[in-house]
Design a protein that fits this description.
Layout: H1 4-11, E1 13-14, E2 16-21, H2 27-30, E3 32-33, H3 42-52, H4 73-89, E4 93-106, E5 112-121, E6 125-126, E7 135-136, H5 146-153, E8 158-159, E9 164-167, H6 175-180, E10 186-193, E11 198-205, H7 208-223, E12 233-237, H8 239-253, H9 258-263, E13 268-275, E14 283-291, H10 295-303, E15 306-313, H11 317-324, E16 332-338, E17 341-350, H12 355-367, E18 373-378, H13 380-387, E19 392-396, H14 405-412, E20 420-422, E21 430-431, E22 435-436
Parallel strand pairs: 6-7, 7-12, 9-13
Antiparallel strand pairs: 1-5, 2-4, 3-21, 4-5, 4-11, 5-13, 8-22, 9-12, 10-11, 14-18, 14-19, 14-20, 15-17, 16-17, 16-19
Helix pairs in contact: 1-7, 5-8
């Protein structure tokens, strides 16, 4: 008879030795939103720095992407590595061995969702375009984004993940089944989250009966998969972080024997699993803001990637956002807004099946000369704010369907990059749990 861990091997996941800050660490200062948020809002990160100060915090263990162009990159990374080792030396963490964590998040926008912290097997993850692996990307992976992230991870002793991975559990037999018995689980943390993040609580999943529940649930999902296209775990947020972990593991794996590879901590990556059928899990399109562009040039570029179409002026930004998702308006649609006001683009015969794909070709063309810049932003409020500045243009994308999500990935392999986001910026995963990635 197989052990529980042997059963998890086939499924591409396993329990982890999870580290959580010990008392008296203030979790409201410890937990910080994902580093790839608010990349055009340095004022957000300044407020976080002011709030945290010198208190123990994941802020000191991450590299907010808003600062990626700053000249002190090497010094920042060195400080991150040193602080990780310092926190371990100070015995700042309690260790919860061979465990999952059931996570309950309530956001300031009123959404409530459940997740399960687990370690995924990077040997069963392939982010290449035509992958049919058990764990795979849902959007195009930009290879040039991996090396800078490797610089941050390669000497790190800890991982503190913001990665969220989706499962397709229509019967709700795993995460929701654990949530139904949460009163029987040990609550290991509860805290308010800074800067409008809502609140979060975590429950330990380490008893034999609960590990069995998780194993049985994933085995049922696994057995229902097409052996030729067995998608069990689909990336939600943090694909480039998981791809970076994969790349670092491939480097390390080459130095290890087969026996050493089997349980090396770098082979795995801690993530939060979420059921796509959770009503509290919202899918939001990722919008775009262009810098140093004019309307006529934008229109000319769009014409290169669609045989026709029209532009409709809208009375206000709210009407534009509604029109982008109005099923009565046929055709591929997206919103455009600049200092002159909002406009709805309706394309005929575009080159890609969804607006995000067509727009990406437009954006790649516009930015190829280095004069026009782009940022990918969460939420329409920041689009409206930035588009008011002369020379800027906001692009509002339509929603993505949760119901057809997994089937689309199985059929089309991946969405265009930066197509969707799970919730708005303040609803993103906050860094909280940690795991050692060196022996």
């Amino acid at each position: 008879m197989q052990t529980i861990d042997e059963r998890f091997v086939k499924l591409g996941l396993r329990p982890a030795d999870i580290l959580l800050p010990a008392k008296p660490v203030d979790l409201s200062k410890w937990a910080v939103v994902a580093c790839d948020q608010f990349t055009s809002e340095p004022e957000y990160w300044k407020k976080v720095e002011d709030y945290v100060g010198q208190a123990p915090s994941t802020l000191h263990l991450i590299y907010p992407e808003v600062y990626l162009e700053e000249p002190d990159k090497e010094e920042r990374i060195k400080r991150i590595d040193q602080t990780m080792r310092q926190y371990l030396d100070q015995k700042l963490f309690d260790t919860y061995p061979h465990s999952f964590l059931l996570v309950h998040r309530t956001t300031a926008l009123g959404h409530s969702r459940w997740g399960l912290m687990a370690a995924l097997d990077l040997d069963q993850y392939d982010y290449s375009k035509d992958s049919t692996s058990l764990i795979r990307a849902t959007e195009g992976t930009i290879l040039s984004r991996i090396p800078p992230r490797k610089e941050i991870r390669k000497n790190a002793v800890l991982e503190i993940p913001h990665i969220m991975v989706l499962i397709d559990d229509a019967k709700r037999q795993i995460i929701e089944a654990l949530a139904a018995k949460r009163d029987q689980l040990t609550k290991v943390y509860e805290t308010e989250l800074m800067a409008g993040g809502g609140s979060i609580e975590g429950f330990l999943v380490d008893k034999a009966e609960d590990l069995e529940l998780v194993a049985r649930g994933f085995e049922a999902l696994y057995e229902a998969l097409d052996p030729k296209n067995p998608l069990l775990f689909a990336m939600g947020d943090g694909n480039h972080s998981l791809a970076t972990a994969k790349s670092c593991w491939e480097d390390r794996k080459a130095t290890l024997s087969e026996a050493q590879r089997e349980n090396d901590p770098a082979r795995f990556c801690l993530v939060e699993l979420e059921n796509i059928h959770d009503e509290g899990l919202t899918f939001e399109p990722i919008h775009r803001v262009l810098f140093h562009v004019d309307f006529d040039t934008f229109c000319e570029t769009v014409e290169d990637f669609a045989s026709g179409g029209k532009v409709v002026e809208e009375p206000d930004f709210e009407t534009l956002c509604a029109a982008v998702n109005d099923p009565a308006v046929k055709g591929q649609k997206f919103g455009y807004v600049d200092s002159e006001g909002p406009k709805l683009f309706i394309l005929e015969d575009p080159v890609c099946a969804i607006a995000a794909g067509t727009l990406q070709k437009v954006i790649d063309t516009l930015t190829s000369d280095g004069k026009t810049g782009v940022d990918y932003v969460h939420g329409t409020a920041i689009v409206q704010k930035l588009s008011k500045e002369a020379g800027n243009a906001g692009l509002v994308l339509p929603d993505i369907s949760k119901q057809t999500f997994f089937d689309t990935i199985r059929k089309d392999k991946a969405f265009p990059r930066k197509t969707f986001s799970m919730g708005e910026a303040t609803e993103k995963r906050y860094y909280l749990e940690a795991r050692k990635i060196v022996g």
